[in-house]
Amino acid sequence: GAVVSQHPSWVICKSGTSVKIECRSLDFQATTMFWYRQFPKQSLMLMATSNEGSKATYEQGVEKDKFLINHASLTLSTLTVTSAHPEDSSFYICVVAGSTDTQYFGPGTRLTVL
Amino acid sequence: KQEVTQIPAALSVPEGENLVLNCSFTDSAIYNLQWFRQDPGKGLTSLLLIQSSQREQTSGRLNASLDKSSGRSTLYIAASQPGDSATYLCAVMDTGRRALTFGSGTRLQVQP
């Protein structure tokens, strides 16, 4: 199966700063990427779905101006948390999908906002 | 809107016991259902995937069943081991929607 990497694996930042998380798929053309977040001891919640070359579709309650998603190529998607606040501290996971229903999970990025 | 529920939320058993984790979903129009394992602070590992046309899938000591009409799935773990300690999540893919809806998970602790 495909290998999906996320960078960084963890990040600590000060409140008010912006953080960019990269999701890369190796040897796999990810036409669709999903971004999920997981708060402590809670389940994964879908934030947005992005198709390569198109604007992302955000789930209800997720601010598109705060969580900027760029899916400019078939192997890279980025999630930028702008003006991060402590309540944005979470585990962010990207999931990539191609033309079939098989999906591959990234290892996750733990964001801590002080 | 699809909702996925997992019972129990937490479970502690002695090593060697057979155990069953439950997952229920509200909308039976699913494409598939998947069970995952998540270790603390880590990402997800897929354990078993059941297509909507299937009744069960097996992998080693794990067996997952699916009753789509009643909106239920179970994950059976035979002869549990301390290494099985983790959070187990089930997730469904609805027909016509590729994103997954996750349950809240069952935190399993297997005591040596």
Question: How many angstroms does the end-to-end distance of chain B come to?
Answer: 41 Å
Sketch the major β-sheet of chain A.
7 strands, mixed
Structural class computed from helices and strand pairing of chain B: mainly beta
Strand tally of chain A: 11
Q: How would you characterize this protein structure?
A:
The complex is a heterodimer of chains A (114) and B (112). In chain A, the strands form two sheets. In chain A, strands 2, 4, 5, 6, 9, 10 and 11 form a seven-stranded mixed β-sheet that branches. Chain A is globular, with a radius of gyration of 13 Å. Chain A is mainly β. Chain A has no helices and eleven strands. Chain B is mainly β and 112 residues long. In chain B, strands 2, 4, 5, 9, 10 and 11 form a six-stranded mixed β-sheet that branches. A five-stranded antiparallel β-sheet of chain B has the order 1-3-8-7-6, with no helix packed on it. The mean pLDDT of chain B is 95. The interface between A and B is medium-sized, with 19 and 18 residues.
Short description:
The complex is a heterodimer of chains A (114) and B (112). Chain A is 0% helix and 55% strand.
Walk me through the topology.
The complex is a heterodimer of chains A (114) and B (112).
Chain A lengths: L2 E5 L2 E4 L5 E8 L5 E7 L5 E8 L5 E2 L8 E7 L2 E6 L8 E8 L5 E3 L3 E5 L1
Parallel strand pairs in A: 2-11
Antiparallel strand pairs in A: 1-3, 3-8, 4-5, 4-9, 5-6, 7-8, 9-10, 9-11
Chain B lengths: L3 E4 L2 E5 L4 E7 L4 E9 L5 E8 L4 E4 L2 E6 L4 E6 L8 E9 L5 E3 L3 E6 L1
Parallel strand pairs in B: 2-11
Antiparallel strand pairs in B: 1-3, 3-8, 4-5, 4-9, 6-7, 7-8, 9-10, 9-11
Features:
heterodimer; A: four-stranded antiparallel beta sheet; 11 strands; 55% strand; globular; B: 112 residues; six-stranded mixed beta sheet; five-stranded antiparallel beta sheet
